[in-house]
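Task: sequence design from structure.
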């Protein structure tokens, strides 16, 4: 039976659990008693904090046991990640030192703050994410230049893998509407958005429209691109600028707009369509090679900036792919220089993009360039 000894319940609790460490009743002076009592209070609070952390670990283990696949697909939305982010809890505990603008660890004011943080995390709006894996949440993808060629194939492939899709186009409204109709026929949502991605205002309006409709953005495929070929000595400044403005600055603008959303979400996948020409160059394409090479460097820099928020940024570098962009080129001659002896198909590029953009196995890939060129970059065989 517990005896009431006249001390505050906090102190009784402390001496029950930790009394053997500090003898309150044995202190002779009043000052010593106060110091010892304060130490006991801190120790008791620390004890409770450790209990809270251990409880959080236990809950996480139970969840993973109930949903082992969740290990790969765990929705690390912000409030949820806070609950189980033990290093973060430890950091906030350390920050509560005297002189660091906080109160003493274990003091009456520091512990409730910490508890409140834990409580807020556990009851935050994404707490329902406790049992939701990424696979359960419909993903939203935006594909620039999704009306034709590679972009069209990517938009359809992402829809097939479960994404709702924003199909961007510059002028081919009918083609974009047809892609939207095909996606809707698959049971997914889609909208066509006209925007010149080299124009900042139009890019911002497109992302605003995306958020208005879908409330989030999980995947961005920077695909829109053009060629304005010409030998270096004859290339007009206008030819240079058009290609740089769309193929490089357009990627930058969309990257920036998407990062504003994805970094807050703490999740997202960005795939930039570059070109093998950005890696090995091509006569008559100085502007295009410079832009696509720039996209590769931009991809690596962005990947480094975004990694801490679980946003991946990768680049795909296709070789010659059978689209309108390559119509009119001497394709038979070109095929002879490709080890696999043929041009690639848009669907083949789309499969690689789908892997990087949605596959759980690609979650640990960022800042890399994936060349898909039938072996072009390694040179013709024989
Ligand atoms: P494509 O068939 O010519 O299609 C280009 C797409 O970009 C179209 O959807 C077009 O929209 C869109 N677009 C053009 N200007 C735009 C602008 N200012 N704003 C927004 N969208 C714009 O080209 P593709 O062959 O599929 O090429 C797609 C990407 O792959 C490009 O970045 C290209 O450089 C790259 N790539 C292609 C090859 C290849 O051999 N085909 C090889 C390596 C890399 P509209 O339909 O409205 O005009």
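Answer:
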């Amino acid at each position: 039976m517990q005896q009431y000894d006249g001390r505050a319940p906090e102190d009784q609790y402390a001496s029950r659990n930790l009394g053997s460490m500090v003898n309150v009743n044995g202190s002779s002076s009043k000052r010593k008693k106060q110091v010892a009592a304060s130490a006991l209070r801190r120790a008791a609070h620390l004890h409770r904090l450790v209990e809270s952390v251990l409880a959080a670990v236990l809950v996480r283990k139970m969840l993973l046991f109930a949903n082992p696949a969740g290990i790969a697909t765990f929705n690390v939305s912000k409030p949820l990640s806070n609950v189980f982010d033990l290093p973060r809890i430890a950091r906030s505990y350390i920050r509560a030192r005297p002189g660091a603008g906080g109160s003493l660890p274990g003091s009456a004011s520091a512990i409730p703050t910490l508890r409140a943080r834990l409580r807020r995390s556990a009851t935050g709006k994404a707490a329902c994410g406790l049992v939701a894996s990424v696979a359960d949440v419909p993903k939203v993808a935006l594909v620039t230049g999704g009306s034709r060629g590679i972009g069209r194939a990517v938009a359809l492939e992402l829809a097939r893998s479960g994404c709702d899709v924003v199909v961007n186009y510059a002028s081919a409204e009918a083609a974009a509407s047809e892609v939207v109709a095909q996606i809707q026929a698959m049971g997914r949502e889609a909208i066509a958005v006209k925007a010149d991605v080299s124009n900042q205002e139009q890019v911002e309006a497109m992302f605003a429209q995306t958020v208005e409709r879908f409330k989030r953005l999980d995947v961005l495929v920077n695909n829109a691109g053009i060629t304005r070929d010409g030998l270096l000595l004859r290339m007009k400044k206008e030819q240079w600028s058009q290609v740089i403005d769309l193929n490089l600055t357009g990627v930058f603008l969309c990257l920036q707009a998407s990062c504003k959303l994805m970094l807050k979400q703490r999740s997202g996948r960005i795939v930039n369509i570059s070109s093998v020409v950005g890696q090995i160059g091509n006569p008559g394409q100085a502007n295009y090679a410079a832009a696509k090479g720039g996209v590769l460097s931009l991809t690596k820099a962005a990947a480094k900036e975004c990694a801490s928020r679980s946003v991946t940024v990768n680049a795909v570098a296709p070789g010659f792919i059978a689209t309108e962009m390559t119509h009119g080129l001497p394709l038979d001659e070109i095929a002879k220089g490709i080890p696999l002896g043929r041009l690639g198909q848009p669907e083949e590029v789309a499969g690689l993009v789908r892997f990087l953009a949605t596959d759980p196995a690609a979650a640990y890939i960022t800042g890399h360039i994936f060349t898909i060129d039938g072996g072009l970059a390694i040179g013709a065989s024989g």
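The chain has 14 helices and seven strands.
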